[in-house]
C-alpha cells in the first residue's frame, strides 16, 4: 500500500481556482466517505486551507488511485477535468511523504515556517480519523508528519522569526514591555495594517486596546474585532497620556504626531516610558519625536530591517529543517518497506518449503527400502538446497529494504516467484515508470 497526494496550492493555482476547490467544513465528512468508497483507496485525508486543497490517500494501485481522486475533484467541484489538470500536482510514494513533511513544517507555505499549518494538518487528520476513513499507512504517515513538524519547529525555531510588518511590530512591543496583558495600547488608524496588528496584539495577550480613526464607525468595527474600545480622534491626546504603546497606521498625508505635542504629553505623563511604532507610509510620526526623552520610536524602515533579517534567519532554519526531513524520510522509508519485505520473505520461505516437501515425497515414492537414516539424509539435503538457493535473495532484499527502491525489488520478487503475499496491503500493483522512481532522491524545491 502506497501513499499519494493530489492537489493544488498558492503556487500552482490562482485564488479563483483555489476558492472553487476548497471544501466547506460541512461537506468534509461526506467527501471523505465518497473517496473511501473508491476500490483503490484504503485510507484518505483531505487538507483544505485558504492556500491549498490536497487529498492524501493510501492506495494499492497508484495510477488508478490518482485517476479516482482527479475524477472526484472534477465531479465534486463541478470543474472540467481537463481544465483542472493544469493546476493539479501529484506526488507518489516517497515524494508524497516528503511533500507532507515539508507542508507540516511550513516549508511549502506562502510564509516559510508559519505555524498555523501544523494545526490545520492535525485537524484534517483528526477529522478523517473520526470519520473512520484512515488506515495503518495513513495513520503512521500523518502521526509521523505531525511529529516531524513539531521537531522542525523545536530544533530550528523557524517560526520564532516574524516576517510580517504587523507581526514584527507586536513582537517589538513584547520585547520592550514583556507581557502585553495590562499594558495600555492605542492603535491609530483602522485600515488593513491596523486590523492585522490588532489581531496579533490580541493573540499576544493584549487586553487593553484602544482604537482611534478619522472615521469613528470604522474604529468601532475594528475595536469589536479585537475586543477593544473605540475612542474619538478629538480625544486622542487624553489617551496618549495614559497608554504605554502607540501603533500608528493611518492614511494621513501629513504627520499626525509632532515633537511639540509629544513633548507636552510626556511632561503630563511624568516622562513615563512610551513606545511608538509608526508603520504608516507616509509616516504618521515626525522623526524628531524619537529624540524626546523616554520615547522609543520605530518607523517602517526599522521594522523592514528586522523583517529582512528574520527572512534570512528563516532561510537558514529552512536548510536545517530540510536536513531533519531527510533523517525522518530515512526512518519512514525503512518502516514502509518493512511492510512488504517481511511478508515477502515469509512467503518466499513458505514457497520453498512447499516445493521441498512436494519433491521429497515424490522422490520417496520412487525409492523403496530406504532406512530412516537415509531418509533423513535426503530430507536434510533437500532442505539445504532450498536454504542455500533462497539465502542470497533474502539477504539482498533485506539490504534493498533500506533504500527507496526496496518496495520495487520486493514486488519484482513477488512477481518472479508468483508469491501469495497476505498482509494489510494486499498484492500491490506498482510497476512504475522509471522517471517516477528517479524522483525519490530529488530534494523538494
From TrEMBL:
Residue span(s) of domain Tetrapyrrole biosynthesis glutamyl-tRNA reductase dimerisation: 320-419
Entry's EC annotation: 1.2.1.70
Residues the entry annotates as binding NADP(+): 189-194
Pathway where this protein functions: Porphyrin-containing compound metabolism; protoporphyrin-IX biosynthesis; 5-aminolevulinate from L-glutamyl-tRNA(Glu): step 1/2
Keywords noted in UniProt: NADP, Oxidoreductase, Porphyrin biosynthesis
Segments forming domain Glutamyl-tRNA reductase N-terminal: 6-156
InterPro entries: 4pyrrol_synth_GluRdtase (IPR000343), 4pyrrol_synth_GluRdtase_dimer (IPR015896), 4pyrrol_synth_GluRdtase_N (IPR015895), GluRdtase_dimer_dom_sf (IPR036453), GluRdtase_N_sf (IPR036343), NAD(P)-bd_dom_sf (IPR036291), Shikm_DH/Glu-tRNA_Rdtase (IPR006151)
SUPFAM superfamilies assigned: Glutamyl tRNA-reductase catalytic, N-terminal domain (SSF69742), Glutamyl tRNA-reductase dimerization domain (SSF69075), NAD(P)-binding Rossmann-fold domains (SSF51735)
Site feature: Important for activity: 99
Active-site annotation: 50 (nucleophile)
Catalyzed chemical reaction(s): (S)-4-amino-5-oxopentanoate + tRNA(Glu) + NADP(+) = L-glutamyl-tRNA(Glu) + NADPH + H(+)
Keyword match Nucleotide-binding: no
Molecular function GO labels: glutamyl-tRNA reductase activity; NADP binding
BP-aspect Gene Ontology terms: protoporphyrinogen IX biosynthetic process from glutamate
Enzyme class name: oxidoreductase
Quinate/shikimate 5-dehydrogenase/glutamyl-tRNA reductase domain location: 171-306
Annotated residues for binding of substrate: 49-52, 109, 114-116, 120
Similarity comment text for this entry: Belongs to the glutamyl-tRNA reductase family.
Comment field on protein domains: Possesses an unusual extended V-shaped dimeric structure with each monomer consisting of three distinct domains arranged along a curved 'spinal' alpha-helix. The N-terminal catalytic domain specifically recognizes the glutamate moiety of the substrate. The second domain is the NADPH-binding domain, and the third C-terminal domain is responsible for dimerization.
Role played: Catalyzes the NADPH-dependent reduction of glutamyl-tRNA(Glu) to glutamate 1-semialdehyde (GSA).
Additional observations: During catalysis, the active site Cys acts as a nucleophile attacking the alpha-carbonyl group of tRNA-bound glutamate with the formation of a thioester intermediate between enzyme and glutamate, and the concomitant release of tRNA(Glu). The thioester intermediate is finally reduced by direct hydride transfer from NADPH, to form the product GSA.
Subunit structure comment from the entry: Homodimer.
Protein name (Swiss-Prot/TrEMBL): Glutamyl-tRNA reductase
UniProt organism field: Desulfosporosinus orientis (strain ATCC 19365 / DSM 765 / NCIMB 8382 / VKM B-1628 / Singapore I)
Lineage: Bacteria, Bacillati, Bacillota, Clostridia, Eubacteriales
